[in-house]
Write a structure and sequence with these properties.
With about 400 residues, the protein is of the alpha+beta class. It has helices at about 10-20, 75-90, 120-125, 130-145, 155-165, 165-175, 190-205, 205-220, 255-275, 280-315, 325-350, 355-360, 365-380, 390-400, and strands at about 30-35, 40-45, 50-60, 60-65, 65-70, 100, 105-110, 115-120, 225, 235-240, 240-245, 255. The strands form 4 sheets. Strands 1-2-3-7-6 form a 5-stranded antiparallel β-sheet, with helices on both faces. It has a 3-stranded antiparallel β-sheet with strand order 8-10-11. The chain has a two-stranded antiparallel ribbon with strand order 4-5. The longest helix has about 35 residues, at about 280-315. It starts with 11 loop residues before the first helix and ends with a helix. Bound molecules: 5-S-methyl-5-thio-alpha-D-ribofuranose and magnesium ion. Magnesium ion binds near residues 37, 230, 235 and 247.
């Protein structure tokens, strides 16, 4: 029986052929390792002659961005390939098509989306994506509501819940999003200029940390829906008329607001970054307005679609009680605001940062952007119970830029 080995650009072509006989004999092959995430290897293999390509994503038995000293269960690849299929079916193709999962090499062979760009990169180039809000709200409403107890048979939902227990990846989120950024943890990646600021504004503020503790235990105990689990703009591929969500390896049953909040936070951080980086006033203000209207629409259209899909798909008798769907949705939006704040703080001082903030070239502007990011994040968390509409999210951002 064959054994797991780490693929490289020399071996990946033969590996693909052994799994799928994907390329023809006359293929003119080019292989590149294109993974820029924190965990895995990603190969793009192209047959230039016949215009055919494929992606191979392989789990490493450790955290790639840290090294072998942080081992990680490679079985996450299997969770990812299973959830990609589920999400593909639920959303009519808003994720890449998978061709095969190999349980020996912990590798998934899947559709190449190289005509798309990573959304974070596209936003940093000030591009706009006219179909994005419509498609991402479809993705979120369908994957979240249709995997919840509101819709699913409760025993089938529990079977899913069991299949998608993902302790090691949840542990990463519990540590990196909900714990370490809130004290001076060894693994934090923190600029010197942020240390005193964090002491004064976050680490010594027990009243604030109490709110974060509530959100942490909400994340750990509210098995509401099958989440993507890492829905930032680096996990979304876009082009003019298409959105494809990738990288669902953090999937597990958790609170719906975790996915919506991760997305909103990353739009907010792009706003803060645009304000700090773009010198041309017209381009800067146009992009900022685009981001605000995207945030507003993500929240409002998510809510609208959520209520309408609820009416179509609800099966639980008690969930049909008048008023319950509004109550349920209200708490999802409150969680969304809380998660928005936590994601913003962890991307500023925690282990894993974002290019939007770290890439600000002028140091004084970077300092200001990161501090604004943390203060706004605190407000999102503390005021989360008053956040109800897209406009509330927009107002929160605008408050810092008047
Ligand atoms: C050690 S993994 C760090 C981060 O990368 C992933 O994309 C997740 O966001 C995780 O928190
Ligand atoms: Mg990822």
């Amino acid at each position: 029986m064959s054994k797991y080995y780490v693929l490289d650009t020399e071996t990946v072509f033969d590996y693909i052929q052994s799994q799928l006989s994907y390329f023809s004999d006359d293929a003119d092959i080019e292989c590149n390792e294109i993974g820029d995430g924190n965990l895995n290897l990603v190969f793009r293999v192209v047959d230039k002659k016949n215009d055919k390509s494929i992606i191979v994503k392989q789990s490493l038995p450790y955290v790639r961005c840290v090294g072998e000293e942080w081992p990680l269960n490679i079985n996450r690849a299997e969770i990812e390939s299973r959830i990609l299929k589920i999400e593909h079916d639920l959303t009519d193709g808003l994720v890449p098509r998978t061709y095969k999962f190999d349980p020996i090499m912990y590798a998934t062979l899947m559709e190449d989306l190289s005509d798309h760009v990573i959304m974070r990169t596209g936003l940093l180039e000030l591009n706009q994506y006219p179909k994005f809000v419509e498609q991402i709200t479809d993705f979120m409403v369908k994957t979240l509501l249709l995997t919840s107890d509101v819709v699913m048979d409760h025993q089938e939902k529990k079977a899913y819940l069991k299949d998608f227990i993902n302790p090691e990846l949840c542990d990463i989120t519990e540590a990196l999003v909900y714990t370490e950024p809130f004290y001076n943890a060894e693994r934090n990646n923190i600029d010197d200029f942020m240390i005193e600021f964090m002491e004064n504004n976050v680490w010594n503020d027990d009243k604030f940390k109490l709110e974060v503790a509530k959100l942490k235990f909400e994340f750990m105990t509210n098995a509401q829906a099958l989440l993507h689990g890492d829905l930032h703009t680096g996990s979304i591929f876009v082009k003019e008329d298409s959105t494809k969500v990738i990288d669902p390896e953090f999937a597990f049953y958790g609170p719906m607001g975790y996915d919506v909040g991760a997305l909103i936070a990353n739009l907010v951080m792009n706003y803060i970054s645009t304000d700090a980086m773009v010198e041309d006033e017209n381009r800067r203000e146009t992009h900022k307005e685009y981001l605000l209207s995207s945030m507003r629409d993500v929240i409002d259209i998510f809510k609208e679609k959520f209520l309408s899909l609820w009416d179509e798909a609800v099966t639980d008798e008690m969930a049909k009680t008048p008023g319950f769907r509004e109550c349920y949705l209200e708490s999802v939006i409150i969680d969304t605001a809380g998660v928005t704040g936590c994601e913003m703080i962890r991307r500023t001082v925690g282990l894993a940062h974002v290019k939007d903030l770290d890439g600000i070239p002028i140091v004084d502007k970077k300092k200001k952007a990161k501090k604004t990011n943390v203060l706004m994040a605190k407000d999102f968390i503390v005021d989360r119970k008053s956040m109800k509409t897209g406009q509330d999210f927009v107002d929160m951002v605008r408050k810092y830029y008047e």
